[in-house]
């Protein structure tokens, strides 16, 4: 559906025209039809620039962008379709609702400015606008001035405007980031439902990992202009390919060490400052490699030392502080050298100063080679 | 290494091709035409002025015109510079003090009748400079002035003499005050009131707050106002011509006028004076730019909208009110009143019971039946509305290029559009004479040459209004139109222009006012049959038709009020509703 190949986009840096900042540094990805594909990363990672290149609002330095069989940009073939001829839908972070038009005219605009040969008749425009407004449940507000809408309604209006051309591809630039927490959660499901029901292919840009995990078919995690990992949400969360991905998606503990040996069943033994740890790894690592083991707070077992049976792959430590979070309780447990965060169900709450035993299921401890 | 170099070369080649293909779009055509017009308007007159002043008959470089212009005698350089400096300084001090005080009172204090004060501060803007000056001659001339008539029994004849440096300063300062008011109004409006309130909470009294907090914070705005007012005073024409020449007080502008209205006409000398004046105003604007750059170091004044809380004036409330009323009386009621009175008299005399019972509308009848006056009224209307519309539309495009695109050289365009700001009206007139007396474009002797003069002179104001609004429009409003499939023109017409409209209308109204008032360029460029209202008033003054002139002046003021009201109404209709 959408094919992006070897995309590069540089900007002149603030220090002068000669210095160049690589905002998008040679990235390639593919989005399948009907899927919601998310570009996830911290601010400044190049995700929005990538999206704007696809939209045609930025001109890449090089690379190829193709939607279905149509080449939108190709530096090699010197193809550059201007943004207004790409016929894609886009929802902006600020919604970019035109304040001088009412709801109906905002949505009708893309149809009204279509080239004369393709422009629908007035009657059809009205019909199509009404149809798409009812899809986003704004049909009773059509004559309302756009600036009189609430945040959530503006968001749906922006979506209706992007959908009215029935674009092959919908681009969403942090569409939920301007909403308050409760509305954001509501709209998340709403957006996902619409996308699935209408069978829309969408590229979604966000810095919110929860949003990305909840909505996407596939996620590309970006950092410093490069894609770090592409995969299904589960895969990204459970099997992060790099230290950056592990740290960015959800909370995690990093334990540094060296590979001691690999058992025939695929379990690695790693020696760390706090003792030996049994782990798994995605890649094949020879003995002696410097690694970090990543383990999520909710995957570490926590018991009072006096209640604990001696289990394999467990360490003892001392609770430093705890924090009640409603559905769970976070404990900071200090070992000899490091401090680990452990998340327990709300019924488990161990006071500071208590000696505890931490258990690490080897299949949840993932080894990541350190680059540095 | 070689590989990257090859890739770079390829990229450069692609960029080149893409740019060439882009040049053939309608977007590029519109932009190109707009840029060409700005360059033409801003640069050609100045180049011709330089050429005409420095290049002699034979084609060689010459300073003869400067030597003639500054020959020792009545008009030597020292006298001109000193007179111009005193006049500009005095007028600036008066207008900035009055304008700042009015702005502070209306924006930041609980002075009563705020709306009235605001209106009173702006009304003088509508009175053309020539009418304002003539009204003051009626009020304070030693022979016929009403003031002198009133104080004569006590102080003797001719106590007030408007034909003096002091008189020139008062009249010009009062007339310029509304502009200073507008500039300072914006500066006070954008200041966070919490800054003053926290000083009050620290225990400071109102005068201390004013001196230690308020004035330092608006200092960048104040400097800008001072320099703009000084440049305005240097290029003022009506006051030095009508009040200064009879008194023998010469400044640059009145000298330019003299050498051009005498015989033989000394274009070269006019060029020499013009270039000197231009050098002074340019230096002033550069100086201001440097000051305001330094001013940025403490930008606690943000563009955010505040709901300013009024500072209680306490026991100063009523004295302040009295001062405002006095200003209103002196700057608005008296000049307009004396014009109205004069327009009803068969010949001008000091008002008395006798003259007040002899009122007549004959002067208005004369004006309405007078073909020249009617034609001039039509010309002023056409030129005012035409140049305001053309300037605002053109500057909407230019400001879009400057603010939105990454076109190389757009900063140059920005500066070119501002360049005419330093060119005094009379100098612009001289420069355009140089161009169109020599260039084979047959527009001398038509309205077109006035149109070009107004277009050039008011381009900077249009640019300021348009670019200020352009900065306030978020870029993604336009990008979403592009993504929706709109072409550049569709996007500009249906999204950018409507959003700009409030700013464009404000600029339009301002330009209509100033171009209908315009005298200093028109007086050099008009030709019989192509007069504008201000020129007709000037001629009637020279002919001694004072009462007819007053009637025409009243009609002109009413016309301007109607234009402004209609413009504001229309603007409110097309603007964004919030």
Summarize the structure.
The complex is a heterodimer of chains A (372) and B (578). Chain A has helices at residues 47-55, 83-86, 103-112, 122-135, 151-163, 181-198, 209-215, 233-238, 243-248; strands at residues 2-13, 16-31, 36-40, 62-67, 70-74, 79-80, 89-91, 169-173, 201-206, 218-223, 226-231, 253-262, 268-272, 275-281, 290-295, 301-304, 314-324, 328-334, 339-345, 355-359, 366-369.
Characterise the protein shown here:
The complex is a heterodimer of chains A (372) and B (578). With 372 residues, chain A is α+β, with helices and mostly antiparallel strands. Helices cover 23% and strands 37% of the residues of chain A. Chain A contains nine helices and 21 strands. A six-stranded mixed beta sheet of chain A has the order 7-8-9-3-10-11, sandwiched between helices. In chain A, α3 crosses α4 (122-135). The longest helix of chain A is centred in the middle third of the chain and has 18 residues, at 181-198. The model of chain A has no long low-confidence stretch (mean pLDDT 88). By secondary structure, chain B is an all-alpha fold. Chain B has 26 helices and no strands. In chain B, α8 packs antiparallel against α11 (219-235) and α11 packs antiparallel against α14. The chains are: A alpha+beta (372), B mainly alpha (578). Chains A and B meet through α2 and α5 of A and α1, α22 and α23 of B.
Query: What is the end-to-end distance of chain B?
Result: 57 Å
Overall pLDDT of chain B: 81
- Which word captures the global form of chain A? elongated
Straight-line distance between termini of chain A: 37 Å
Low-confidence stretches of chain A at least 5 residues in length (pLDDT < 50)? none
Beta-strand proportion of chain B: under 5%
Helix content percent band of chain A: 10-25%
How many DSSP helices of chain B?
Answer: 26
Tell me the fraction of residues in β-strands of chain A, as a range: 35-45%
Give the helices and strands of chain A as they follow along the chain: EEEHEEEHEHHHEHEHEEHHEEEEEEEEEE
Number of strands of chain A: 21
The biggest beta sheet of chain A, please? 6 strands, mixed
Structural class designation of chain B: mainly alpha
Largest beta sheet of chain A: what is the strand line-up?
A: 7-8-9-3-10-11
What is the radius of gyration of chain A? 25 Å
Tally of separate helices of chain A? 9
């Amino acid at each position: 559906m959408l094919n992006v190949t070897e995309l590069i986009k540089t900007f002149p840096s603030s220090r002068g025209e000669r210095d160049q900042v690589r905002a998008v540094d040679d990235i390639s990805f593919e989005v399948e039809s009907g899927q919601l594909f998310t570009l996830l990363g911290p601010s400044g990672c190049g995700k929005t620039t990538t999206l704007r290149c696809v939209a045609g609002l930025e001109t890449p330095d090089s690379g190829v962008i193709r939607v279905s069989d149509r080449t939108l940009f190709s530096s090699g073939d010197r193809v550059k379709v201007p943004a207004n001829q790409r016929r894609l839908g886009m929802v902006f972070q600020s919604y970019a609702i035109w304040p001088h038009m009412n709801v109906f005219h905002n949505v009708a605009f893309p149809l009204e400015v279509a080239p004369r040969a393709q422009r629908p008749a007035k009657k059809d425009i009205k019909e199509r606008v009404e149809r798409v407004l009812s899809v986003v449940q704004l049909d009773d507000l059509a004559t309302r001035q756009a600036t009189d809408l609430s945040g959530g309604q503006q968001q749906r209006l922006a979506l209706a405007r992007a959908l009215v051309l029935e674009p092959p591809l919908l681009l969403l630039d942090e569409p939920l980031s301007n909403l308050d927490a409760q509305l954001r959660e509501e709209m998340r499901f709403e957006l996902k439902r619409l996308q699935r029901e209408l069978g829309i292919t969408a590229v979604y840009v966000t810095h919110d990992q929860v949003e990305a995990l909840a909505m996407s078919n596939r996620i590309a995690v970006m950092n410093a202009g490069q894609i770090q990992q592409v995969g299904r949400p589960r895969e990204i969360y459970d099997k992060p390919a790099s230290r950056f991905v592990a740290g960015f998606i959800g909370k995690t503990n990093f334990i540094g060490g060296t590979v001691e040996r690999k058992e025939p069943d695929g379990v690695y033994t790693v020696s760390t400052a706090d003792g030996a740890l049994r782990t798994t790894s995605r890649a094949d690592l020879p003995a002696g490699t410097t690694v970090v083991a990543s383990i999520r707070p909710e995957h570490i077992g926590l018991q009072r030392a006096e209640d604990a049976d001696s289990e394999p792959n467990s360490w003892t430590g001392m609770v430093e502080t705890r924090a009640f979070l409603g559905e769970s309780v976070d404990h900071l447990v200090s070992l000899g050298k490091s401090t680990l965060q452990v998340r327990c169900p709300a019924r488990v709450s161990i006071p500071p100063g208590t000696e505890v035993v931490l258990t690490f299921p080897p299949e949840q401890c993932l080894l990541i080679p350190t680059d540095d | 290494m070689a590989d990257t170099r090859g890739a770079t070369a390829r990229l450069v080649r692609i960029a080149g091709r893409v740019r060439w293909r882009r040049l053939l779009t309608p977007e590029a055509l519109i932009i190109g035409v707009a840029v060409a017009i700005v360059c033409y308007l801003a640069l050609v007159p100045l180049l011709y002025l330089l050429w005409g002043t420095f290049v002699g008959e034979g084609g060689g470089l010459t300073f003869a015109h400067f030597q003639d212009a500054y020959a020792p005698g009545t008009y030597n350089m020292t006298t001109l510079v000193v007179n111009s400096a005193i006049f500009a300084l005095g007028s600036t001090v008066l207008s900035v003090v009055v304008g700042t005080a009015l702005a502070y009172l209306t924006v930041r204090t609980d002075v009563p009748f705020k709306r009235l004060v605001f209106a009173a501060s702006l009304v003088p803007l509508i009175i053309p400079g020539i009418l304002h000056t003539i009204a003051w001659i009626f009020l304070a001339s030693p022979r016929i002035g009403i003031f002198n008539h009133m104080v004569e029994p006590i102080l003797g004849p001719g106590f007030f003499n408007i034909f003096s440096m002091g008189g020139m300063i008062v009249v010009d300062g009062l007339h310029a005050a509304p502009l200073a008011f507008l500039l300072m109004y914006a500066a006070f409006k954008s200041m966070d009131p919490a800054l003053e309130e926290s000083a009050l909470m620290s225990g400071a009294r109102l005068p201390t707050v004013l001196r230690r907090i308020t004035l330092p914070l608006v200092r960048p705005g104040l400097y800008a106002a001072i320099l703009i007012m000084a440049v305005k005073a240097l290029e003022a024409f009506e006051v030095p011509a009508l009040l200064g020449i009879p008194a023998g007080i010469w400044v640059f502008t009145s000298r330019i006028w003299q050498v051009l209205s005498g015989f033989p006409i000394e274009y070269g000398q006019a060029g020499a004076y013009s270039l000197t004046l231009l050098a002074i105003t340019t230096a002033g604007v550069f100086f201001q730019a440097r000051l305001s750059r330094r001013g940025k170091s403490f930008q606690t004044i943000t563009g955010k909208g505040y709901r300013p809380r009024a500072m209680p004036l306490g026991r100063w409330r009523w004295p302040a009110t009295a001062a405002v009323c006095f200003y209103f009386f002196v700057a608005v009621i008296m000049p307009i009143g004396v014009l109205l009175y004069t327009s009803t008299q068969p010949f001008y005399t000091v008002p008395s019971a006798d003259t007040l019972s002899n009122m007549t509308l004959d002067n208005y009848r004369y004006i309405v039946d007078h073909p020249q006056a009617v034609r001039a009224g039509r010309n002023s209307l056409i030129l005012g509305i035409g140049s305001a519309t053309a300037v605002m539309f053109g500057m909407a495009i230019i400001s879009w290029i400057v603010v939105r695109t990454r076109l190389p050289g757009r900063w140059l365009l920005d500066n070119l559009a501002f360049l005419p700001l330093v060119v005094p009206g009379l100098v612009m007139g001289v420069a355009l004479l140089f161009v169109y007396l020599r260039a084979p474009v047959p527009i001398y002797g038509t309205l077109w040459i006035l149109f070009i003069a107004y277009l050039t002179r008011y381009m900077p104001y249009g640019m300021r209004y348009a670019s200020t609004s352009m900065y306030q429009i978020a870029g993604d409003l336009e990008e979403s139109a592009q993504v929706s499939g709109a072409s550049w023109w569709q996007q500009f017409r249906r999204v950018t222009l409507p959003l700009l409209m409030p700013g464009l209308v404000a600029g339009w109204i301002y330009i209509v006012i100033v171009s209908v008032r315009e005298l200093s360029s028109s007086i050099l460029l008009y030709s019989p049959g192509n007069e504008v209202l201000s020129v007709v008033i000037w001629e009637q003054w020279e002919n001694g038709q004072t009462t007819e002139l007053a009637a025409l002046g009243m009609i002109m003021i009413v016309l301007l009020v109607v234009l402004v009201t209609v413009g504001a109404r229309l603007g409110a209709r097309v603007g964004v509703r919030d």
